[in-house]
Amino acid sequence: MERETSIGKKADEFLQMFRKGEEFTQELLKENERLRFKLAQLEEAIEHSGDEAKIRLYEERIKVTEDELNSLKERFRQVEEENKDFAAKYVEVEDENNNLANLYVASYQLHSTLDFNEVLRIVLEIVINLIGAEKFAVLLIEEKTNELIPVGTEGISISDVPKVKFGEGIVGTAAKEGESYFSENIHNNRGSISTENPIVCIPLKIKEHVIGVIAIYSLLIQKEKFSNVDYELFNLLAGHAATAIFSSKLYTQSERKLTTIQSFLDMLKEKPRR
């Protein structure tokens, strides 16, 4: 709903910019008509004047023409600036629409399977393609040990990502408080990464219940900064990913229990050998 409101605001801004462009055009036409009328008056006056008066009138005509040229240049500069703003807004809204469409596709993919490994693979792809992360890990909370355990990584070996105590460090604190963490300099880890100091840490939440985190250690080189769209994507992705991961884990656990029970029943049905 918030994203729809945001896009609605962008659309209103577009309409306002279109109206401004139309107003500029109307003003240019009026200014041009006014100057044309003044030049016509001067030409008529020149025809009925003596030599000295004609010179003065020609000089005045030159000045009017110069004023017209300067006025047109200024108007053109203003319109050019408006066009630049319009182009920037257009690109921003296009990016928002593309990301929104990609997120809908990603959401459909996430909820189209109950296979945990497949869900995890989709989450990794989304973080790469939508967020622009290069090296990152998905860690889930192990309730028995109260630790965050890495279950999937990209650009880094899973063995290089340590377990994290709930509530400790950047990752553990983000999980405990349920609040996202963003480093002031997102390119701190461009050369070498620190698994203890991620540049971004996003809690995976189902309502207020945190089941894990996405810890990003470095971004793709072409990703210079995060935009407002990225922050919205983080929040939406975290919610969808958390739901899909939780559902797939629950399904896997239930399937294992069912298999165990079925095996036990099969054993009971077997006739004892004599």
Structure write-up:
- The protein is an alpha+beta fold.
- It has two domains: 2-108; 115-259, 2-Layer Sandwich (Beta-Lactamase).
- It has helices at 2-47, 51-110, 116-131, 169-177, 228-269; strands at 133-142, 147-154, 164-165, 181-182, 200-206, 209-219.
- It has a six-stranded antiparallel sheet, sandwiched between helices.
- Helix 1 (2-47) runs antiparallel to helix 2.
CATH homologous superfamily grouping of the largest domain: GAF domain
Gross CATH architecture of the largest domain: 2-Layer Sandwich
Low-confidence stretches: none
Helicity level: 55-70%
List the secondary-structure elements in sequence, H or E: HHHEEEHEEEH
Q: How many domain regions?
A: 2
Number of helices: 5
Major beta-sheet overview: 6 strands, antiparallel
What would you call the quaternary organization?
Answer: single chain
Give the overall shape, derived from the CA principal axes. Answer: elongated
Q: Spatial order of the strands in the main sheet?
A: 3-2-1-6-5-4
Taking the alpha carbons of the first and last residues, their distance comes to 70 Å
By secondary-structure content and strand pairing, the structural class works out as: alpha+beta
DSSP strand count? 6
Average pLDDT figure = 76
Beta-strand percentage?
5-15%
